[in-house]
Amino acid sequence: MAVLSTPRSAVQLASKGQPLREHLFRIALIASLAIAFVFLLALLSYVLIEGWPRLDSRLWENMPSVRNPDIAGAQSAITGTLWVISITALLTLPTGIAAAIYLEEYADRDRWWNRVIELNIQNLAAIPSIVYGILGLGIIARTFGLGFSVITASITLGLLVLPIVIIASREAIRAVPPSIREGSLALGATQWQTISRQVLPASIPGIATGSILALSRAIGEAAPLLMLGAVSFIRFNPDGVFASYTVLPIQIFNWISQSREGFHILASAAIVILLVILLLMNSAAIWLRNRYQKRW
Predict the structure, then answer these.
(1) Nearest Cα to 150, choosing from 79, 240, 219, 56?
(2) Residues 232, 255: one domain?
(3) What average pLDDT does this structure show over 46-72?
(4) Per-residue pLDDT at 243 exceeds 60
(5) In the predicted model, what is the mean pLDDT of residues 58-72?
(6) How many folded domains does the chain comprise?
(7) Do 179 and 37 reside in the same domain of the chain?
(8) Which Pfam families match (predicted)?
(9) What mean pLDDT comes out for the span 248-263?
């Protein structure tokens, strides 16, 4: 009987070449991670060192000033940011999670309209943010008559990050093992009881991570808010959803545009405040994820 065998030289080349390629690939990955980390560390160090002289109570207690950077602050921008991102979360998270539940648990994928919905959600996630600003200006602000207000900015940013929340929530729900659903249904639970008491608690870590990443994008957006009349200089805090507003990215843009060095220092300090807010949001998501991961 003839035995097919690989030549000895080919076996040696394969055994030597495969580990070499894996080693080079691992080096490339580590190098990419190191380069990104170095640039991030350099950026954070520069911002922190540049803004350190103004990281005091004046920054969050005083209102902006166009003349004297020594007494200028960002209280109105910080308050406006909290207003806008809070309402954005209230509008976006329930809607996005409910849409994900429908598409994953109830929708029939053989129906053409469900396929159209899924395709449009994926396409909307890639649209530039300035397009949403134009949409908010033309429809929400003018057609609906909401004007240049907090609620207009929140709805526009909500539409911007809604596809991200839906996609992340769907992936988290899809990752729940089918055996959990089957076991719950076998014990006599209804489909909604299975979703609300088994599927959703198990998918909360992934949903929380995706939602915080979406809100982190929304809190740093400036282009759509420029279209929606976010005021770069405002000396009062918003007192409702229909009030005028400004946000930290707009205030930072305004200070960077000034010629005096004192305003540049203020901009760096405001960037640190924005990063702190982002860090607190991500910390809340990590805490929520770890809490539910221990249960499951």
Answers:
(1) 240
(2) yes
(3) 87
(4) yes
(5) 86
(6) 2
(7) no
(8) BPD_transp_1
(9) 88
